[in-house]
Design a protein that fits this description.
The protein is of the alpha/beta class and 736 residues long. It is built from 31 helices and nine strands. Among the domains are: 175 residues, Rossmann fold; 83 residues, Helix Hairpins (Orthogonal Bundle), CATH 1.10.287. The termini are far apart. Bound molecules: guanosine-5'-diphosphate (GDP) and magnesium ion.
Length: 736
Amino acid sequence: METLVQEHSMTIGLSGNPNCGKTTMFNALTGSHQHVGNWPGVTVVTKMGHARVGSGATSQEVDIVDLPGTYSLTAYSEEEKAARNFLINTRPAAVIDVMNADALERNLYLAVQILELGVPLVLALNMMDEVRKHGKDIDTALLTKLTGCPAIETVARSGKGKQELLDAAFLLAKDRNGRWDPLVISYGPDLDPVLAEMEAIITKAGELVGQVPPRWVGIKILEGDESIINRCREANPEVAARLEALVAKVSEHLGRTLRASPDAIIADYRYGYITGIARQVVRYPKVDAERIRLSDRMDQVLTHQLAGPLVMALVIYLVYILTFKAGALPMEMVQDAFAWLGKTAEAAMPDGLLRSLVVSGVIAGVGGVLGFVPLIMIMFFLISALEDSGYVARMAYMLDRVFRIFGLHGTSVLPFIVAGGIAGGCAVPGVMATRALRSPKEKLATLLVTPFMTCGAKVPVFLMLAAAFFPGSEAGVMSLVTLTAWVAALLVAKLLRSTVVKGESTPFVMELPPYRMPTLSGLCIHTWERSWDYMRKAGTTILAISVLLWAAMTFPGLPADRATAFDAREAAVQEQIDAAKAQGQEASALEEALKQVGADRSEEALKASAAGRAGVALESVSHLAGFNWRVNIALVGGLAAKEVIVSTLGTAYSLGEIDTEDAEPLSRLMAADPSFPRSAALALIIFVILYAPCSVTIVTMARESSWKWAVFAMTFNTSLAFVAAVAVFQTARLFS
Ligand code: GDP
Ligand code: MG
């Protein structure tokens, strides 16, 4: 940083949470006088600028440094590290903390941490226009008194208050003249004495971590801050060991008495301090009190022990019915449009690889995904309405007790339902819906098990198998499949949460915001954002994958001698047909035979393709679960998109392309296949419920977590599915 800051002039830092209006304020303060650089050692971009304070002869130029937006000063992220190192190493003359005053409590968390460091701080109560619009009021004078920092009301967007802000920072800097004056918060009867002892040791030992307050170093060590602990160890190993011994002792005591770690206690007290300030300083409008009363009355019914769950079931059922009823027609229209497009392309292009690529690869693949857009838009619209009204928070509240047992959170129910908790959803928006979960661990666990749900693309697979092997009990099979999916999701979540995704569960903050009427424009924006995300993928990921899959099922194709043999057979039958026709005889049996040759040819070509060979090779393992090579190809295809399973089975069972809606002929063929008994069908159902999510889901999971977890989902789910399928197949075989 030093190189960016001019030696002679005064430096003022600009801190704040992300989205508090910091950049807007920076621009308002510095105008066009800014330049961009990098924080030394990290990849965080920083901006520098300057501004003028005072007027006439006493006016002075000050440097303004835009710190990265952070919520706190722990050193968990690059941004936090950069912000902290700037404060400690550069020691700015003052810092302006830009706060979204509309969310004062959350924003005070950072301010308090800067104050604990002792940095001269000015509070910019930004977004005051929003505060007023919401009918709230902030007692700025009282805030100044409680925190000891000048608090200035600003609206960065219009530049209101910016000069007062700058002047206040300048005055404070002059007044303090480089002196740090740390805020002291009590951390309770257990930690306060330890902190005092640590402070004494650190003061005596001299500087361990640059010119920072000794008590602050103590707090950081108690919080388990690695970088500070390491700096202490380097500076003075003997003192560091004494400090760490103190921490270990109090940690052990806290663990025994309060079942908490020092950093949790510190966070609790810090929040307590902040809540205390916010409660005194912010005044809420009267109308809100009335709305809250109405809201409470509604909650007496909507979250009632008995009525609550009933209403919830009804609401979920309605969302489901409305989505599929209202979505049926537009969905059919989109699918018809793509069918028409496919037919038109087929008619317009000469037979060959290119036509096959365009029709089967591009149009069918992308169309399969875009066909769901109407459903998704309607479902998201309804779910946004539930969210914006505040009802989803109630659902989460009611389900939390059950989900908690499995290491999940009440909010996990939303992704489950979206992904097909009620058969017919889609795992892609389901995975996206995990954003509502605040704890990263719970989000991860939810995200990993969400794809077990019965998405709309899996439904035809189950329906087809039910029709083939359990005729007359389709509804029962579907209900069992749904139930199995939920049980599997909860059990696997429990397994993950006690092994690879270990971590404390977040307490369910009983934060039930008052109900509010959703606005139409808000709903439309939410719906559009989510749907667009989904559509964009159809044009990118899905397109690429369906082309790849098409290639795998097309190349290398029949060997030349087999192709010639089929050509000859076809020509021979055609000749017979022509001859029969010339004599005016009936040729339908022969035409049937010609079709059969064509079907044989496509089956053999498929078996010779890369995907076909993989299917055959996999038989050596998959026979344990009762899957033959045809099923294997379909399952490999299902990795791209689950829709592919039924259509690939159709191709593999020599039917050419079959319509997924009309699965009857395939189910009869499968039921008649001696190499595919009922026990194998059961195993296949289990396998399809559990195995790797489809490619779009995988990409979405990677974007929501990381590729590591996306790959984990693929391998873990498939292994689990295989083990379960083998168990089911082998057991069912004993009884049949
Ligand atoms: P940063 O992430 O802290 O840099 O925030 P930005 O400066 O990018 O601002 C985030 C959003 O808040 C932008 O849309 C700004 O236009 C808006 N914004 C900034 N200051 C104010 C303000 O005082 N009032 C209102 N209503 N909006 C503001
Ligand atoms: Mg910014």
